[in-house]
Amino acid sequence: MPAFIQITDTHIVEKGHLVCGVSDTNAALRKAVNSINNRLPALGQIDCAIVTGDLTDNGTPEEYAHFAEIMADLKLPWIAIPGNHDNRNAMRNAFARQHWMPSFGPIQWLQDFGPFAVLGLDTLLEGAHHGELSAPAFTFVDEQLIKLAGKPLVVATHHPWMYSGIPEMDADNLRNGARLMELLEHYSGPIRMISGHVHRAITGQVGRVLCQISPSPCHSVNRDQRKDAVHSLALEPGAVTFFTWHDGAQSGLISDILSLEKSAPPVPFE
Ligand SMILES: [Fe+2]
Ligand SMILES: [Fe+2]
Fold it and tell me: Second label for 237, Cα 20 to 30 Å away, from 24, 46, 200, 217?
């Protein structure tokens, strides 16, 4: 069955560096790559990994080179869209030879998986933490929605539109997401939106669009709903999200969050 793994918010830094002095994001991605590789025999055929932004922490050429070096060990091809911690030009230069990388404009693409398709969109607004879709991005969405003609669709973005309930993250979400949701609302087929940015596993329904945010292999954005809470990162266990098409009476795309923590081997039910 067609399948992909969403890896998001890897925040790669130069060798020996830590994010906020505590989060070893480089080790976290290496752990994710090993964990995915080890799970591949049990997961079956997987078409690719989709990286939904914040590949690096500062968008430098050195960080993209380090990201590529770690990802070279992944036994899957990968494709990516940028996040607010990325730099579009540096990312384009680093991965210019990849089939999915456009030579100019937003880093956006369509990946056809057979029974469904994934539309990767570029929500990076250089110099800002919040996300915005540009005019060329909306043109691309318009064109693709017409072409896809109701095929089950996943729209992948770094910035979510749905609220997470974490005020600082919701202030920095996809600010013109309402316009995107209006287009998706009128799409004739099943549709969902998958994002990153919040580093937590969050699901919500916006109109007829199922919205999901994937956890990150590294740190999480802390959830503390008290009024005086300090916006913080938390070193919670990392994870990636596995998506696979399910055929049969209830055909459709299912998702499963895969922890990167080592556990004891499976034990057969009695
Ligand atoms: Fe992030
Ligand atoms: Fe982000």
Answer: 46
